[in-house]
From TrEMBL:
<feature type="transmembrane region" description="Helical">
    <location>
        <begin position="164"/>
        <end position="181"/>
    </location>
</feature>
<dbReference type="InterPro" id="IPR027469">
    <property type="entry name" value="Cation_efflux_TMD_sf"/>
</dbReference>
<dbReference type="InterPro" id="IPR050291">
    <property type="entry name" value="CDF_Transporter"/>
</dbReference>
<keyword id="KW-0812">Transmembrane</keyword>
<keyword id="KW-0813">Transport</keyword>
<feature type="domain" description="Cation efflux protein transmembrane">
    <location>
        <begin position="34"/>
        <end position="212"/>
    </location>
</feature>
<dbReference type="Pfam" id="PF01545">
    <property type="entry name" value="Cation_efflux"/>
</dbReference>
<feature type="region of interest" description="Disordered">
    <location>
        <begin position="1"/>
        <end position="21"/>
    </location>
</feature>
<protein>
    <submittedName>
        <fullName>Cation transporter</fullName>
    </submittedName>
</protein>
<feature type="transmembrane region" description="Helical">
    <location>
        <begin position="187"/>
        <end position="205"/>
    </location>
</feature>
<feature type="transmembrane region" description="Helical">
    <location>
        <begin position="93"/>
        <end position="112"/>
    </location>
</feature>
<feature type="transmembrane region" description="Helical">
    <location>
        <begin position="124"/>
        <end position="144"/>
    </location>
</feature>
<feature type="compositionally biased region" description="Basic and acidic residues">
    <location>
        <begin position="8"/>
        <end position="20"/>
    </location>
</feature>
<keyword id="KW-1133">Transmembrane helix</keyword>
<dbReference type="InterPro" id="IPR058533">
    <property type="entry name" value="Cation_efflux_TM"/>
</dbReference>
<keyword id="KW-0472">Membrane</keyword>
<feature type="transmembrane region" description="Helical">
    <location>
        <begin position="33"/>
        <end position="55"/>
    </location>
</feature>
Length: 217
């Protein structure tokens, strides 16, 4: 499908196609699993944004980018079960723009917190971080059954692994905040995660623009 590509070294899994279909007919139940994955990721995005604001944690907000990006990917995968390349590339452009915007907002929020922020609440960070990890592993388990062939299996695991690394980073930030009584572990983790979102967004943007150029030529 060629919608997203993944560089092994970029450390992040959102610049490739989650929903790459196996060759041949769409397996039964695949669309339903994509819908479940979409709903879980959209809900976790809302939970992490709400918890991030409530706990004063910027790293939770940054982790929410992951869930937003995933929800976008699953929505895209459902849409492209029937759409052509140009429509897919336009959707990818929109998604890349959203990821870039969110990354910039998180960095701005981190900067503001560095100047004026209170110490975030580590217990909320920890609880929501664990919930996020469980959600990612559950979605991976659902999608695993629909992974025919090595490349597809590899992509879902790369993506899940990267999401889980994000969740673990939030848990580390929570421990760091608890241990030091300062907000710096939270801000550091948030800055790194926002940077990853920006780099992934730029990669998707470049790819989508290339596809639009070739698709409309």
């Amino acid at each position: 499908m060629g919608l997203h590509h993944h560089h092994a070294g970029d450390g992040h899994g959102h610049d490739h196609d989650h929903g790459a279909l196996p060759d041949g007919p769409v397996p039964p139940g695949y669309a339903r699993v994509l819908w479940i994955a979409l709903v879980v990721n959209a809900l976790m995005f809302l939970v992490e944004v709400a918890a991030g604001v409530a706990a004063g944690s910027v790293s939770l907000l940054a982790d929410a980018i992951d869930f937003a990006g995933d929800a976008g990917n699953y929505a895209l995968s459902l849409a492209v079960l029937s759409l052509g390349l140009v429509a897919r590339a336009r959707a990818a452009l929109f998604k890349a723009a959203c990821m870039l915007l969110f990354g910039v907002l998180v960095l701005a929020r981190a900067g503001w917190s560095a100047l004026a922020g209170d110490v975030p609440e580590p217990l909320t960070m920890g609880i929501v971080g664990v919930l996020a990890l469980v959600a990612n592993v559950a979605v991976a388990a659902l999608l695993y059954a629909y992974r025919e062939g090595d490349a597809n299996m590899r992509s879902v695991w790369l993506c899940t692994r990267n999401d889980a690394i994000g969740n673990l980073a939030v848990l580390l930030a929570a421990v760091g905040v608890f241990g030091t009584g300062t907000r710096w572990p939270d801000l550091l983790v948030a800055a790194v995660m926002a940077g990853l979102a920006l780099s992934a967004g730029l990669a998707v943007l470049r790819q989508a623009r290339r596809e639009l150029a070739t698709g409309s030529a």
